[in-house]
Amino acid sequence: MPEMIGSGVYAPGEPIDHRELMELTGVEFDSDRITAKLGIRQRHIAHLRGIDETTADFAEKATRNALTAARKVDPEVSAERLDLFVVATDTPEFISPPTAVLLQGRLQGGQQESTAFDINASCAGFCTALDVAVRRLDSDNSIRYAVVVGVYNMPAYIRPGDAFGYSIFADGAGAVILRRQDGDATVSNYRAGHFVADGTQWNYVGVYSGGTRQPVTEARLASGEYGLQLLQRLPGDRNVALWPPVVQRLLEKGGHTLDEVDHFLFTQINKDVITRVMALLEQPMDKTTTIMDRWGYTGSACIPMALSEAVRTRRVRPGDLVVLVASGAGLAVAANLIRL
């Protein structure tokens, strides 16, 4: 069964605080509220810095950073030895081919016996991809090393004048390197996964144009029906009600209790929600990490970015039991229970 041997993050350019963001975009928003409630103070957005980078660039740089960290644990790991590439994103480089295939090509330089594919579970993508990658490593003895990347480039889809989009969403990527464990196959560092879906909630927020139902046309562009669209306001307490039962079910499946968990990581869109959920779980805030103050909301990248930050600051250490919970539009929810 696999173990996590390295993690890395990437965000483009210098950070942009609220004041500069409003100057660069011409939008206005309540910056004090964004900071006090959501916890966001700054973010990284490539196109506002004039940086010619998009999803595949972010994924590549985060992966290279993760490989650098992994080589401190295992000097044999390298880009050439990666057998599995899984990219989690709902802001891909192209609709087709997959971003993971581009990542494989950049890192390995040509045809190899590698597997590469994308997973789109909106902002629950990384936790979903991690579960899939772990099970691929577990079932295929030919896979020794894998990379799982969560990457987000939603600012590329934000329309001019969209204060909601610019005040919240940001660019970034987080990657983890997995290695097949030797020894006792009955002992797994991946303790459990748990999922929730409700496709009746598809029409809240998303990128609705560009697929087969709503191709991008001149008329649609002229009417502003493209890019990131907020069709309905999301219920403010949805994750407050949703996450505690998801955590409890995950721990039941993994055979652990709340107090055995060393650290909890949640989707990084709203710090106030995370505070309320930790209170409902009767867990102290020092058992969670938040990163939205530095990086804004990075969607499918926020869980691996938060995990990497928790590792870097030694808030989590080898052997710790960690809960990951991610919610995304659709509705898609994914959770993982891992031992580092």
Q: What's a concise summary of this model?
A:
By secondary structure, the protein is an alpha/beta fold. It folds into 2 domains: 2-180, Thiolase/Chalcone synthase (Peroxisomal Thiolase, Chain A, domain 1); 190-339, 3-Layer(aba) Sandwich (Peroxisomal Thiolase, Chain A, domain 1). It has helices at residues 18-25, 31-38, 55-71, 99-108, 125-139, 163-168, 218-223, 238-254, 271-280, 292-295, 302-312; strands at 2-10, 16-17, 42-43, 84-88, 115-119, 145-152, 172-180, 190-197, 205-207, 228-230, 263-266, 321-328, 332-339.
Name the features.
340 residues, Peroxisomal Thiolase, Chain A, domain 1, 2 domains, 5-stranded mixed beta sheet
Largest sheet: 5 strands, mixed
Principal-axes shape call? globular
CA radius of gyration: 19 Å
- CATH topology name of the largest domain, in short, is Peroxisomal Thiolase, Chain A, domain 1
The strand order across the widest sheet is 1-7-6-4-5
Q: How many angstroms separate the termini? A: 13 Å
Write the layout of secondary structure elements.
Blueprint: E1 2-10, E2 16-17, H1 18-25, H2 31-38, E3 42-43, H3 55-71, E4 84-88, H4 99-108, E5 115-119, H5 125-139, E6 145-152, H6 163-168, E7 172-180, E8 190-197, E9 205-207, H7 218-223, E10 228-230, H8 238-254, E11 263-266, H9 271-280, H10 292-295, H11 302-312, E12 321-328, E13 332-339
Parallel strand pairs: 4-5, 4-6, 11-12
Antiparallel strand pairs: 1-7, 2-3, 6-7, 8-13, 9-10, 12-13
